[in-house]
Write the C-alpha cells for this entry.
Amino acid sequence: MFTDPVRAGATDLLVGRERDLDRILGLFERSAGGTLLLSGEPGVGKSAVLDALAGAAAQDGTRVLRAAGAQFEADVSYSALNQVLLPLHGILDRLDAPGREALNVALGFGAGPAPKRLVVCNAALALLRSASEDGPVLLVVDDLPWVDRASAAVFGFIARRLSGDPIRFLAASRTGVGSFFDGSGLPSYELPALDTESAARLVDLRFPDLARPVRRRLLEAAQGNPLALLELPDALRAGQRRAREALPAVLPLGERLQSLFVTRIRSLPAATRTLLLLATLDDTGDLGVLSAAARATDGDADLRDLDAAERDGLVRIEESPRRLVFRHPLIKSAVVEEATSSARRVAHRALAQVLADKPERRAWHLGEATLQPDEEVALLLERTARHIQDRGDAVAAIAALTRAADLSPLDTDRARRLSEAAYVGAEAIGALSSASALLEDAWRADPQHGASLRSATAAVQLVLNSDGDLATAHRLLVGAIEEGDHGFDAEDPALIDALHFLLLLCNYGAREELWEPYYAAVSRLRPAPPPLLLVAARTWGDPAHADAATLRALDEIIDGTTKETDPARVVRVGTAAVYPDRLAAVREAAWRLVRQGRDGGAVRRHIGALLHLCLEDYHRGEWNTVLELSEEGLTQCAESGYTVCTWFFQYTKGLVTASRGDTDTAHALADAMTNWAAPRGIREAVHCAQHVHALADIADGDFDAAFGRVTAISPAGSFPPYVAHASWVFFELVEAAVRTDRRAQASAHVRALRETNVPGLSPRLALLADAAEALVTEDDAEAARLFRGALATPDADRWPFTLARVRLAQGERLRRSRALSESKAPLTAALIAFQQLESSAWAERARKELRAAGRVVPHAEGRTGASLTAQEREIAELAATGLTNKQIAERLFISHRTVGAHLYQIYPKLGIASRVALRDALRRQDED
C-alpha cells in the first residue's frame, strides 16, 4: 500500500518529518496486522502526519476512509464509525441481511432495535473487506480520546483483525490522555517534536522576515512544537516581529494554542494557578522566591499546592538544584493568558517585594504592578534601562524608558525619558517611525524639551533619513549643543554622542565652514576633550593634513579597541581608521558587531561595521565578499529605514563593479548616489560617486572623462581642507592627467601631494604616491627607481588591485621607453592579478601592453614554468606560512625591502599575484 511514490508524496508535504515518516511506514510494513497507533504531545503535528499519509496514499490509488473524534459527539454512539463508513453506504447491499440491518441501524440509516455490538463489529469488518476487493483501503482516525465508546470498540475490533487483508488502520491520540479505545498490544509510534534544524526551517519558510532575536526567542519557546512555531509569530505585532518593539516576557498564544493549553490550566485549583503565575513571572524556578512570593500575596497558597500541577504533568521539581521546571514553555504562556490583569499585578507586586536585593528584576516587576504615576518606580526603571542598554539590548531599554515615562509624575521627566527612548530607537535599532512618535509625545509633554541633546540628535536622524537636507540637520544639532545646559562636561554621554554625530554631519558635508562650530564646541569640553573626537576630526574629516602625532594617537586608540564591547565606540574608531587604512586592525571587532547585528543587535552599528568590512575587503581583493556584505547592508538600510546609509553600499558595490569592468552597473550605482545625495548637500557621497565614475571611465579607457570626475573632487594641484576623499583619488587624477597629456596638471598635483601627509597615512597610499611621482617624472631611469621603491613597500601584496595597477603603470612606462624585456615581469604579474580578481578591463590593458612588447600572453592561470633560485624558494616557503616580509627578513638576516624585491620576482615565476596563492603554487611546482 505505501509504495515509494507514497513515501515521496508524504515527505514533500511536511517539514522535518522525513525520518519519522520512514519509521512510521517501516512499522506498517513490518506489522502483520496492518495497524499503527500514533501518539504525541498537543500541537506536535499528528494530524499533519495523518493528512500527509492519507493524501499521498489517495494519490497512489488507495481508498482513504477518515474520522476524527470530537468532544461534542463523544456521547453519540457510533458517530465516529459513521464518518468512516459513510462513503461505503453504496455497497452495504454486499453484506448479508443481518449485517446490513445492524449497520443501517448503528449508523443511523434505518430504524430498529439496537444491534448487538459484536454483530456491528463483524459487519463493519466485512464491509471493509468487501471494499478492499476494489483496491487497498486505509482507515485514518484522528483524536482517539474524543471517539465515542461504541465506535472505539469497533475500531479496536477491526485493528486486531487485518492480517492478510489489503486494509490498514492508522489512528492518533495525545500522549497521556485516556480514551475508550484499547490500544494495548498494538504497534505504536510516538511522534517527537521537530529537531532544532527542522524547526528553524519551518519558521524560515513561513515567516522569512522575522528578526533574528525574535526568531531565536520563538524557537526557544516552541521547543520544536510545529503548531507553536506557526501560531506564535501571528500573535505578535508587526513591530515585535521585526524586533522594533520589546517582546512580552511571556509570549501570547494563538487561538488553537489556547484551546490546547489554557483549558488544562483552568481546571486546576485557584491556589495552584496562583503558584504557577508567580513561577511564570519570576521565570527562575527558585523555590525559595516562589514560597516567599506566595506568602506575600496574602493568599492561602503554599508549595504543596503545586501537587495538582505535578500530577497533571504540567511542571516538575528538579532535585539538584531544587527548582520548578515547566514541562513546556507554552504552559507558561497559558498561565498568563488565563490570569486576570489584577491577578498579574498582585503577583508582580509580591515578586518585587521578595526581590528587593535584585534591582533590575524588582524594577521590572514594580513597573508592571504600578498603575498610578510613581517617580520612585520610574527612576528605578530609568536606571535599569541604562544597564540594559549597556548590555546591548536596545529594544528592552526602550521598553523600560517608555514605561518609566508613563509612570513619571512630572511632564519634564516624562519628556526627558521619552526623548531618551526616541534617541535609542533611532540610534540603535532603526525604529525611526516609533522614534518619531516618541519625540512627538515628548514635545506634547513638555514643549520646551525640544532643544535637549537627545531630542535634537533623534530629530536629526529623522531629518537625514527622510527628505531633509544636511544643512538643516547641522543647524539643528549645533543649536542644541550651543544652547544646552550640559556645561560642556566631557563626561556627559548625551553631549559626547551629539558631538560624534556632528562630526559625521561635518564629514558628510565636506565643507570647511561646517567644522567651525564643531571645533568650537570640542575646545570648550572640560576637563579635556575625549581623544577620539580630536583624532577622528583629522583622520576622517581632513586626512590629507593629519600629522604624525595624530596618527600615533589613532594607533593608540585602535590598540585599546581590540576588546571593546561598546558598539558605538567600535564603529567610531573604525570610522577614524578608514582613510589612514587602519581598518585591518579593527576587523575582528567589526565582525563581532556584524554577528551581533545579525542576531538583533544595534542596526546602525551593524551597518557601520559592514561598511568598514566592505572597504577593507575591497583593498584586500576579497571582492565577492564585498558584494555579499554590500547586499546585506542595503537590505539592512531598506528594512530599518536608514536610507541615509544606502549610499555606503552603493559605493562599495560601485568600486567592485567598476574595478571588474562592469562599467554600466558602476555608472548606474554612482548616478543613484549622486541623485540622492546632491540635493541634500551630502558632498562626501557625491565625491564617492565621482570616484566610482572615474574608475569605470578608466576601465573603459576614457581618461578624459576620468580626469573630469576626480578634479570635481580635488582640483589638480590642490588638496582642499576637509575634502577627505581627495586622499583616495590622487593616483586616478595623476594617471588620467598623464594619459590625456595634461602633464602640467599631473606634476602640480604630485607637488601638492608632497606638501600633505597622504603618503604617511598608510603604506598603500605611500605605494600609490611613489607610483604617481614615477608617472610624472621625465627621466626614465628615475621613474624606474621610483617604481622599484614603490613596489618594495612592505607587504604590498596585501592590496592586490593597487599593486597590480602600479605594476601595470610600471610595465607601460618600461614598454614606452623601449625597455621591452624589463616590461615583461610587471606586465605579466599585473595580468595574473587582474585575472584572479576577474578585473577584465585592466587585464585587457595588460594583455595589449604585453603584445605591444612582443610577448606571448600567458593563459589565465599565468603559469610560466620558471624555476626559483634557492633563496627565492626559501623566501616563498616562509611567506606561504603567513610570515610578513619583516619577519622573513629577521629570520634570513636580510632587509625587508630585499624580501619584497624577491617576492616581486617570485610571483610572476609561479604565475600568481599574491602570497595568498603561494602554498598552492609551490605544491604545483613540486608536483611538476
Observations:
- The two ends are 60 Å apart (CA to CA).
- The chain has 48 helices and seven strands.
- Residues 411-429 form the longest helix (19 residues).
